[in-house]
Every structure is written in structure tokens, then in C-alpha cells.
Amino acid sequence: MRAPALWQHGRPSQVCLLSVTALCTGCAGMQSALHPAGPQATHISHLWWLMFWVCTGVFVLVIGFLLYAVFYPRQQNQPVTTPETERRTARVVVAAVVITGLVLFALLVADFRTNRALAALSTSQPLKIKVTGHQWWWEVQYEASIPSQIVTTANELHLPTGQPVLLELTSQDVIHSFWVPNLHGKKDLIPGYVTTLWLQADQPGVFRGQCAEFCGHQHAYMAFLVIAEPPDVFSAWLEAQRSPAVAPGDALQQRGQEVFLSAACVLCHTIRGTPAGAKAAPDLTHLASRQTLAAGTLYNTPGHLAGWIVDAQQLKPGNKMPPNSLTGSNLQALLAYLTNLK
Amino acid sequence: MADDTHVMDASELHEHQLLEQTWQQPRGFFRWFTHVHHQSIGKRFIITAFIFFFLGGVLALLMRLQLARPQQALLGPDLYNQIFTVHGSTMMFLFAVPVVQGMGIYLVPLMLGTRDFAFPRLNAFSYWIYVLGGIVLYAFFLCNTGPDAGWFTYVPLAGPEYSPGKRIDVWQNLINFTELSALGASVGLIVTIFKLRAPGMSLNRLPLFVWSILVMSFMVVFAMPAVITASLFATLDRMFGMHFFNPAEGGDALLWQHLFWFFGHPEVYIIFMPGLGMVSAIVQTFSHRAVFGYTPMVLSLIATGFMAFGLWVHHMFATGLPQLGLSFFTAASMMIAIPSGVQIFCWIATLWRGRPRLHTPLLFVLGFVCIFVLGGLTGVMLASVALDLQVHDTFFVVAHLHYVLIGGAVFPLFGAVYYWFPKITGRLLSERAGTWNFWLMFIGFNLTFFPMHQLGLQGMPRRIYTYVPETGWGSLNLLATVGGIILALGVLVFVGNILWSRRHGQVAGSNPWDADTLEWGTSSPPPSYNFLHVPVVQGREALWVHTAEAPVVTGLRSDRREVLVTRILDAEPDHRTELPGPSIWPLALALAVTVAFVGAIFTPWAVPVSAVLCLIALIGWAWPYQKKTDQEQRIAGQQL
Amino acid sequence: MDWAHRIVVAVCTVVLGLALAACEREERRFREMPSGVSPSNVRLSEIQPGLAVTTPPTTSPYENNAYAISEGKRLYTQFNCVGCHANGGGGMGPPLMDDKWIYGSAPANVFATIVEGRPNGMPAFGGKLAHDQVWQLVAYVRSLSGLVQQNATSARDDHMQATAPGMAQPQEHPMSTKAEHPQ
User: Fold this and answer.
1) What pLDDT score does A10 carry?
2) Taking CB atoms and an 8 Å limit, are C28 and A324 in contact across chains?
3) Kind of pairing, strands B552-553 and B534-535?
């Protein structure tokens, strides 16, 4: 069961350009903790490199001593060990243990300092985004004090660059974990709890995140995109998301809306501005404005969308979207309508 | 003490024949089920554990094949989830703990200079309940009812709503079987080590391997109840509608994690602690000197055992617990590296101040140090909350855990097999095959698991059955798969070596390595009664300080299974006691308990029904042994 | 070695028996069942003129399938069956936990009820639900009154307690003639 390929290297190439130290193959840096794009991930990355070099040094020393101990040439006729050598060895071992303790203490201090730096990122009155985990998609809600200004979308977060953003995380079913390595470590989404995560992106870019706590059949395909954009671009996006769905422009799209409302779609999906208001599945009001489908599994093209609608189980077996048998013309109309929902 | 160069005189021959009659394992297919002697049970534990090791390894290879390229269709998500769960559960519960307990059960009475284990029938029961548990797991797995929520089955995913059917109930049951087995064996090991030592073997003369088994056994006794409690709560939730883990009715999903990891973290130290003991034994023998710093080594083992219970929250750093608490666990998790460091430095000092002979066991020990130190260092990285938040639940952790478990337990285990195989079977394993075995395993292991560190940092989470090509994870995964195949080849060489050397290996004497612990003072393989004369120990390195004029223990009856019980601190003789001989009741009780556990998956009626069966088995077990042995009848006849 | 051979055969038989018995309960089917499994011969009356034509009842493909029953429970809430039937106790709609079935409790009858709708307020879900979703709902609805194997039901939801644990439902005889046909 081969899912069609993910997004082409369009916007992601911006991130590739930014990744100065791309170490590996593929679009390196896209989902990598070693290519930080925000202060949280940067602090952690610094800690990583400190620990990496210290541990490498320790490893080289220990193995070096081990190999020397085994292979150094010994005098045949003299005893290898005497009371004097035992005392000297004892002093060396004690010194090694003390140094170990000091190194560990230094690393402990480095960890505490990093934790304090991570906790320092906050602001009063931040942008609050509520992320709710479902099997196997992400419900994203931008909070607002006026209810009509709340924006609900799915599987994609937009962030303004240069500002701390507060994520409030919970789950509707099982434990998931929100993880976008370029920006920060992960935080679990636990039913019955609300956990929080402070994020900030320093540069515009597209970052991929993925669920990091085993949550069932399609844990492997529960990804999402985080799109960081300049604050004015972000505000424009948020404003556009607040509006109800684009009305059908022509007869084909009109029929497509009717197909949507009369087929199975209306039982699970919301399109604001139409009678469809079910909350069991991702909000489709601005479906065409998103880059991916099926929680980061497919690029959002008409072909992929058609394949997803007709037989989602082929692409992501076990997920909650049933197959739909639509006639050719109905499918065409539905696609025309959905691809217009910018 | 009997050894191959010693020719028995007439009285010793008579003694040998009497002892042989008293202690011999009964022959025959049905009598095989009645064995209780520690040599039998120990060998069975080890062989059965290795069979599960191979099964778990096959599952691992299947996973590696599936992950080798992006979006392969070899295994669908449902089957993959069952495979990784059964792989983890097999390795942790059906291989790692039983094999080290088996090594302990076989070797500890020999090392202590006694004739059998403290509670032979309990020991046999532990074996049977373990084997039945493993069979039950795989039987259900073959019936598409293998557990599929990971080897630590987090709720609510593993709860009644999100894991329909009986799959998770099978896992909960496996816990019951294996933890009962581990507890039984551990209790026996503790009592054997404390009370059945040869005179003169005071606590400060115990071999380091025996210390490691002792500490491990105490850890088992304290850790297992936590997981049995967790499993009980989960079963009550799943079967009887209780709400321990249901947040909507006042329960808590995190309660499971705390209870499980309170067991789970000590569990991994339980697995690797006997490995430390095996390494000490091998280093001591192959440097031909005592391990440097006996007292610090013992204190390190004990300190590790204690500290292991204070680390469990480092598995939960991403759950949003308060920062102050998390920092405490960071400090504790880093601190536990200090006793391990003490041990490593002492071993290096031992090798430095000795004359190492590079036989295969020592080769595996060198491999252990390389791999385990690397794993321990990544463990220090994972101890840090900030870094853990990035690499938790990714392939970085998969790499870490395999480095410490394979490096810390499997490599010492293989070295121990090469070391003690001549004792158990009387023949040496081939050195040449052993070298091939080691290098294939070492190279294969590193090729498989080292790239996983990078994969984790590059964003690859754990427990995914596939990934999209754009992530760029394909080439490292392919490398890991190739490494896995090489590792498997190494294990195949091991199996081949064992099978060949059993028939054609060079005959080993009683002490081919010129080692110092007591088990090398009897023939290879040891007679059914272990020692013709129970020795009196004169020093820490028993055989190296032993003199020909050393006293031996006399006065133990040869026509009954009698052992000498000594005092805990100084091993002064205290009294004699008789141990039970072959009995069918351990197996009968194990079968009754199996009916209870497996039946309870389907109906609560299983509990009262099997309680009756258990009662019958227990009555049989406890029934006073009235029948005279054949020997006693003959003696009585002669006296008449 | 004859007894050893016999023991091996006995063990294999047991294993095979286990395999066949357990497979269905634990099967997780993600693709829709073939469309032929849509009952078209549901009769709402027992009386027939002339000689009775008996057709074998359509069996539910998901009878006793634990995954299907659990999915049925999810769909039951998601598609708002709870709005009229509560969690089996009924309200605006009739209860589903009891043994009174106005239109029959056989799987084919329940299927028809969901797909066709019924007078006095039961909507027709035909054309809006995929067949396998309907069969999952059929399995769950039947489990509410204990008509499926208890092994396949689960004890409780991970939400607020609304029903007695599925495993504690009084078991009814699956083919009780009183309940199967319309009353």
C-alpha cells in the first residue's frame, strides 16, 4: 500500500537553505532536532553538542585505557602487581571516580541552566493555540475572547515569527505527543490533563512535526505542519481563516456542495457557513488553504484528495475515514467544491 | 575435591555411588517433568530463554525488513504493532530476566559449595510457570490475539475502549506468569546465598557474581509487586469495568505510567546486574588476579540496586509533571552512573595489573565495555530533561536501550556461555568460531543501532510501521537492516558453535581456565551431587588459596538429599536439612495456576475452579514424604 | 514413540482450534466488506401466503468481532444515536438494551432499520453510511442487549459511566425466537 508521495520541494526548500549544517541526505533539517529554528530548540541543541563532545571525550578515554590495559606489553619475568602498584592504582581509580562525579555535576548544572532558559520563554497575553489530539489527526484551535473569532483548523499550525506562542494540549482519546523537532522538544497530550508548551519560531519556514507517543494503528501517519510566517502574513492568514467557507462559484461547485451535504461527508465534517457542523473529523472550512491531507501524509492536490475521499483505507488503513463510493460526476463536482475552499 | 586428575580411592568410590543414587535425576520422558535439582532447572531456564531470544530476534528482523525502505508493504500496521509488542515483551520478560536467573540457579549452588538450591520444588515451579506463560503468549500471538500496544501498554490506549478484544488481557496475563516465576526464583536465590554457603565463605568472600545475583534478587522482590499491582488494576478496568485509569470517572492515565515504571526502571537494572557479575568473573579469571577493589565493587552493586528505584520518572519527562520533581530525577539518573563508573574503572585496573589472556569470554567482555559505556553515556544525555524532550520516544531511545541491554546483558551473557560451557557440558567451545561469533555480533550490532541515534535526532519516532520518503530516513534505516542481518549471522554462528562443540569440542577438565571459584573444583560436567566433599573455604579466591590439607565437610548423609545450612554473616555451620527430591507437584501447581490465569481472561469462573485445582496441587506438594527411598529399604534390609 | 506422536497431534489440534476460534474476534478489518453483504430479503412479517419461502438469514460479517463492536460504539456516539436512544436506555426512541424489538433483532433486520429508517423518527442512514459502518453499528446495538458473545464486548468506556459494563450484560440466547422476529 504505497501512499502517494508527500509534498514536492516547494516551500520546504526555504528551510533547506536555512540549514547551514545539513549533515545528511534528503531534505535534511526538515524534522531535525539538530536544525533549530527557534530559541527553545536552540538551547537544547547547544546542550546536545556540549554533552556530545563531553561524552565522546569520556568514551575515547575509557576505551583507550581499556585497550591499553589489555594490550600493553608486559615484562615476562617481573610481577605485574605489587602492593605499591596496587596503592597507585587505587589512587588512579579514586581520581577517575572523582572526575566522573565532577563531570556529571557539570552536566547536571548545564541541564538545569537549559531548563531555566526553556522556562524563561513566556509572555503575558500570548497567542494561545489549543491542540487536541485525536486518533489520528490534530485539531487546532486559535483561541479568542470573542467566540465568533475562534479559528478551528486541522493538522496545520501557523505561527507568527519572533513571538512566544502558548500551546495548550489535551487529547480526546489516547495519549499522543506533540513534537516539532525544529522548534522544541515534545509534550504529551494526555486525556484528563491539559499540558502546555511554549514555542517560538525565529525565522519563516515550514517545519514538520509528528506524533511521538504510540497511539494505535496509524501513529506512523499522524504528522502535522508548522508554518512560521512574518506577523503581518500571519494576521492576514488568521483573518482569512475566521471567515466562513467560500460560497460555490459556479454550477459545478454548487452541485459539489450538494454532494457534500447529501453524502456521508456531512455526518463527520464541519464547513462553516453550510449546515455541516459535525465535530468528529477535521474542519474543512478552509481545506484548500492547507498544504497536506490526512495529517501530513499526502500533499494537498486534487488527485490525492480524490484518492483520499474514494478510498482512504487504501492509503492509511485503520483510520476513521470510511471509503465512499461516488459516481464519477459527483466526485468531480465534490472536488471542484472542496478545492475552492481556500 | 574431585577433579579429573584425582583418582578416587575405594571409600570415595563408595561415597560417590551412594551420592549418585541419592541425587541422580530420574530418567525417562515422564520422569523428566519431575526434576527439581538446580542443574536441571538452571539448564532448562537457560535453553528456554535462548529459544525465546531467537523468536524475539526473528520478530526484530521482520521489523527491520519492514523499515528498511520507506512505505514498504511487508507488514501492515496491525501486524507490525503486534510484532513490536511481542518482540519487546519476549525479550524483556521471556528472555532477559529468565536467562540471568537461570545462570544464577545453575551456578550459584556450585559457587557456594553446596549440593542444591534452597527450595528445589519452588524453583521447578518457577520454571514451569515461566514456560507455560511463554507458550500462552505465543499461542495467542499465533491466533491473531498478540498484544499490540507496546511492551509497556500505556493506558488509555491499552484500556477497554481503545484496545477491544483480548489482546491486552493476554499481555496482562504474561505479566502474572513471568513475575510469579521471577519472584519464586529470586526468593530461592536469596535464601540459597544467605544460608547454604560452604563453611568459611563469609559474606566478604562471596564471589562477585554471587553478589550480583543477590542484589538482583532483592531488586526483583521489591520491583515486581509494582507491576503486578499495575497489571491487576488494568485487568480490573478491562474485565470488571473499574475506573483506575479512566480520567472521566476520577481515575488517572498517568497512574499506570508511575506504577509501571516504578517496576520498569529497576527491571532493566535487574537484567543487567548479573551481567556485571559475569564480567567480574571473566575478568578475574582471564587476568588471573582478583578483581581490583572488591569492597568498592560490592558497594557499587548495592548502590546501583538502591538507586535504580529512584529513577523511574525519567521515562515520563514529557508528561508535564512539575519541573522541580523532574529535576530531582535528572540528578538521580545522572548519579547512578557513578557506581557503574566505579565498576568499569576497577575492571580496567584489574586488566591493567594482570596478564590478560584474550580468549573468547574476554573478547565479549571488551565488547561489553565498549557498547555499554556508549549506552551509559547516551543514558546520561537522556537523563537531562531538556534533551530528553527532544529524543524521548524516538529511535535515539531505541538505540540507547539496545546499547545498554545488549551491551550490558547479552554480550556478558555470550561471554559467560563461552566461559561456563566447559563446566556445564565438559567440552570447550571452539575459539575460532567464537572469534567469528564475536566480531559478527559486534560489527552487526553497531551497524544496526548506532545509526538509530542519528535517526532519532532527525525526527524519527518509535513504533512507526513506516515513514514517508521525504523524511530522508531511508538510507540509515537500510544500513540498520543490513547490520541486523549481520548480527543475526553472528547469533547463528553461536548456535552452530554450540551444536558442534557438544559433540566434537575439546574435552575440558574440571578447570580449563584455571579459575578460582568453587564450581571449577568439581568435575565437568559436575556430578549430580555437585561436590564429593563439601569444601571449607579459606579465602576470597577459593581455589587459588586452597591448600591440599584444607578440611572438608563430613557428616552429611549420603542416602538422603542433605545439605549444610550455615549462618548468614560468617558461614559457620548451623544445622543440616533435607531437601526434597523429584516431584510432579510443581508442574501440577503450575498447570493449575495456568488454568486460573488463562481462564480468567475469558470468565471469572476460572478463579474458583482453578482455586480448587491449586488446592489439590498444594496439598500434594505439602504432603509429608513417607515412602522410604530404595536405598533406605536396602539398608533396612541389610540391617535386619 | 507412538505416544509422542499422539501428543504432537493433540497439541496441533488444540492450537488449530484456538486459531480458528480466536481469529474472528480479534480480526481488524479496515477495508469495506464486499457489497454483496447487504441483506435484501428482510421480511417484517412472519406470515406468508401459501407455502413459506425460507431463505437463510444473512449473517452479520461482524458478529462477535471485538474491533467492530468497539467501532460501533464509537459511531453510535458520533452519529448521535445517543440523542434518541441514550446509551441503550431509550428516550425519544425506544430502548435498545431490552428484548423488545419492534422490527426484529436479527442482524439483517437491524441493518434494514438503520439503512431504511423507520416511522416515528428513525432517520434513514442509507447512502450516508458505508456498509461496514452499518454492520459495526448492528454488532454494537445487538451487544447492548447481550446478543453477541460476551468475550467480544468491552467492560467500559473511557468516558463518563453511562451503561453497565458490557461484560456484565445479561446474556441472551442469540437465536431466541421471541426477539428475532418483529413483534
Assistant:
1) 32
2) no
3) antiparallel
Among A264, A318, A322, beta carbon nearest to C28 = A318
Strand A127-134, strand A165-171: pairing = parallel
Predicted local confidence at residue A22, as pLDDT: 32
Confidence band (pLDDT; 50, 70, 90) for C32?
low
- Tell me, yes or no, if the two domains A127-238 and A251-338 fold the same way: yes
Q: List chain A domain ranges.
A: 39-72+80-120, 127-238, 251-338
The minimum CA-CA distance between C9 and chain B, rounded to whole Å, is: 16
CB contact under 8 A, B386 and A195: no
DSSP-assigned letters across all residues of B183-220? HHHHHHHHHHHHH-PPTT--GGGS-HHHHHHHHHHHHH
Q: How far apart are the first and last CA of chain A?
A: 30
Taking chain C, what is the end-to-end CA distance rounded to the nearest angstrom? Answer: 62
Band of pLDDT at residue C131, cut at 50, 70 and 90:
confident
Range of the domain at C81: 59-160
Assess whether pLDDT exceeds 60 at residue C41.
yes
Separation in Å, CA of C11 to nearest CA in chain B = 11
The shortest C-alpha distance from A318 to chain B (Å) reads 8
* Chain C interface, best mutation among A170, A215, A217, A267, by max C CB count within 10 A: A267
Flag if B145 and C157 touch (Cβ within 8 Å).
Answer: no
What residues of B are in the C interface, CB distance below 8 Å?
29, 78, 139-140, 142-145, 156, 159-162, 164-167, 237-243, 246-249, 602
pLDDT of residue C56: 72
Work out the average pLDDT over C97-113: 89
Report the pLDDT value the prediction gives residue B381, as an integer from 0 to 100.
96
- Report residue B380 as a C-alpha cell: 546520561
Q: What's the pTM? A: 0.92
Residue C23 lies in a domain: no
Note the pLDDT of residue B241.
Answer: 86
pLDDT for B546 equals 81
Query: Which cell is A231 given?
Result: 506577523
Distance from C-alpha of B314 to C-alpha of B193, rounded to nearest angstrom: 33
A101: exposed, middle or buried (Cβ count in 10 Å: 0-12, 13-18, 19+): middle
- pLDDT computed for residue B62 by the predictor: 97
Evaluate whether residue C15 is within a structural domain.
no
CATH pick for A127-238 out of 3.30.565.10, 2.60.40.420, 3.20.20.70, 3.10.50.30: 2.60.40.420
Position C39 scores a pLDDT of 67
- Nearest residue, CB atoms, B238 vs list C70, C155, C164: C155
Task: Give the model confidence (pLDDT) of B166-191 as tens digits.
Answer: 999 999 999 999 999 999 999 999 99
The Cα B479–Cα B405 span in angstroms is: 21
Q: CATH code at C141?
A: 1.10.760.10
Mutant choice from C26, C30, C157 vs A, greatest count of A C-beta within 10 A = C30
A251-338 belongs to CATH 3.30.1360.20: no
pLDDT in the model for residue A214: 97
Evaluate whether residue C44 is within a structural domain. Answer: no
Per the CB < 8 A criterion, the answer to whether C1 and C127 are in contact is no
Domain count, chain C: 1
pLDDT, position B12: 86
Residues of chain A with pLDDT under 50: 1-26
Instruction: Name residues of chain B where pLDDT drops below 50.
Output: 1-3, 640
B624, three cell numbers: 509429608
Residue C121 belongs to some domain of the structure = yes
Handedness of CA A261, A266, A151, A39 (dihedral sign): negative
Residue A18 has a pLDDT of 29
Interface of A with C in 311-340 (CB under 8 A): 313-314, 317-318, 320, 322-324
Say what the alpha-carbon torsion angle B305, B309, B312, B313 is, to the nearest 10 degrees. Answer: -130
